[in-house]
């Protein structure tokens, strides 16, 4: 492609979060000198979302601290950033997106980075004042404003967001009760063995769990939520309620346009959708993963950070495969954790270190003793070794895996 041809092309990015901003960055880093239009539904500059439930609620970071690039960057790099707008439809035949005012914006290549939104279960009272969801900085600020010392917070859902907010709220001297339909927190993500570790952690910090419980209603007085009624009739008084029961990928315009979807937008190893001129990244991308030999959709920060470079290369006609293993992290009280791999089904969990002191490693193994995933808790600088064990894909000796005296590097042989 000649420079003239490149400069005449328009690449449109739908989604103004971390992934969308990073695609724009990557395109300019790869010397694309055509037009870049970045559509952002929010009125804020693109920012990272993990701090919303971590450092921001803990009072350690404000929005400028986790904004991806400040405004001058978009101007200096000739990125047409349109805040407060998004695409309402996609016309693949005409190669354009429809904007909220009905106008259209043509593209030569299109990147979908629309992210996800909070799931809103049909709970009576869920739309009342004082009921919070957490996906945006404005929602985070509204929740923080309700977390005054002595307040009572009821959290519906014991997933990552619910537990991280519980940690931040306890740090603000807020009474926290968590209602969860499963028998343990993080059961779907980590399984029973490690779910119990997080249950113990939060109980030690004064969190009241109500497991195997169903929310029948959020009680409301004069338009404001004041409690949560459970299936057994128990009413939990609340000054604020957080509903944190997962995220729903924003794939509606892709589906309406006829792109292949199945719980996410289907992409290949290069992040290309069923339309060769369109890529998808982040929460919405259900990738056929080259290393895992499975289709994986991961709603975590690492994909939003790292997939854009691959997407940009694909858009520019130099496709490479995205081979990073799924990765996520959390910080709760004095527990810091990193997780690498993918273990939707596993046979056993092997730990090394002191689980009670919360300084340990955990590994999820299949029936053939292959490491599917690994987690380090308050032990650092081992992530690369854990990645190597997962990528190894051969059997390991569980006894040696559990032995801190055996270097992890000796197991992947």
Question: How would you sum up this structure, described in words?
Answer:
The structure is a single chain. The chain has a 5-stranded parallel β-sheet with strand order 3-2-1-7-19. It has a 5-stranded parallel β-sheet with strand order 9-16-10-11-12, with helices on one face. The chain folds into 3 domains: 3-117 and 248-315, FAD/NAD(P)-binding domain (3-Layer(bba) Sandwich), CATH 3.50.50.60; 120-245, FAD/NAD(P)-binding domain, CATH 3.50.50; 334-410, Enolase-like, domain 1 (2-Layer Sandwich). It has helices at residues 3-7, 18-29, 50-53, 71-76, 137-146, 160-171, 187-204, 252-256, 301-315, 383-392, 398-402, and strands at residues 10-14, 35-40, 79-83, 89-91, 96-98, 104-106, 109-112, 116-118, 131-132, 152-156, 175-179, 208-210, 215-221, 224-230, 235-237, 240-243, 247-249, 265-267, 278-280, 285-289, 294-296, 327-332, 335-341, 348-354, 359-365, 371-377. α2 packs parallel to α9. By secondary structure, the chain is of the alpha/beta class. The mean pLDDT is 96. The two termini are 44 Å apart.
Gross geometry: globular
Low-confidence stretches: none
Query: What is the number of helices?
Result: 11
Name the average pLDDT.
96
Q: Percent of residues in beta strands?
A: 25-35%
Radius of gyration: 23 Å
Q: What is the domain tally? A: 3
Largest beta sheet, briefly? Answer: 5 strands, parallel
Structural class: alpha/beta
CATH topology of the largest domain: FAD/NAD(P)-binding domain
- CATH homologous superfamily heading of the largest domain: FAD/NAD(P)-binding domain
Question: What top-tier CATH class of the largest domain fits best?
Answer: Alpha Beta
Distance between the termini: 44 Å
Strand order within the widest beta sheet: 3-2-1-7-19
CATH architecture of the largest domain: 3-Layer(bba) Sandwich
